[in-house]
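User: Hi! I'm working on a homework problem where we have to compare a predicted structure to a textbook description. Could you give me the structure for the chain below?
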Amino acid sequence: MDTAEELSEPFKLVMPQDYSILTDILKHRIPQSGGMYNIVRTLDNLEAEQSTKCFTLNGDLTSNALLLIIIETLDFGQNISTSIPDGFVADSKIKEALRSTKIINWKGSYMFVGIERSLSSTILDIGSFTFGNTVQLAPTNSYWVDPKIVASLEFKELLNQEDADGEEDGICVRNLDIDQGTSFMMKNWTYARSEAGLRKMISNNISAGVYHQGELVTAGMLSSHGMLGPLVTSLPHRRKGYGTKCAQFLVKEMLRRGLYLISSAAKENVRSIALHLKLMSLTHESDWIFHTAFDSSK
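Assistant: Happy to help. Predicted structure tokens:
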């Protein structure tokens, strides 16, 4: 942006020296903003080319701030997370700021991540009716584990318990090998787009692989959105407790790094919801909103 555009831009870039203020705001909005809190806490671990940037409406860094984090990805365009204060109402000024901002490429590919319901209808309207995009919405349940529960003996036992129905012989859970993980996810994850994008996801984030007699059967990671997932088990090995083992490994590593245990599941994904409820509690309903840019060359 040139100087004139910067002055007129409603969303101002948050500089690294203010990240501590950002984390304090987000911490007071837990669990709804837990994913964004995790992102800011791990920014120093992300490669610069991921282009992760934090913004606040009108430069506000108070408890009333509307915050955005935008991650430029290889496979999904802009991944956009939002954080709003309690009692948020998307008034005409906020709607106009979102419509006019240049930091969101409304005509490009984008994915709004776990948007709270008081904002998601505005995002959907702008994308669909202002910019004429064909937009998809996925309603989700959001989950977390309260830190008080994390500290309890019961939760620690849950993290370490073995699944009675699982196959224990020849099972190993360890950090995901990048080459094996990339190949596995390309074959088994519905939303896999490219090997380059997957390699970047695995190398930049906490990951785990469950191996049965040396074969990778389940893979999972902490996404760039600061949430637990994706977590995928190959079809022949489902319903054997491997997903739970993978989630246990990831949760332990997140706790070791001081992150909040945050995740989400599509409302129609019964299997994922059942897995989440083994370790986590439902916090609120949210929406993921997608747009894939139209390719006129095809």
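For your comparison, note the following. The radius of gyration is 20 Å. The domain at 3-141+287-291 is CATH 3.40.630.30 (Aminopeptidase). Good luck with the assignment!
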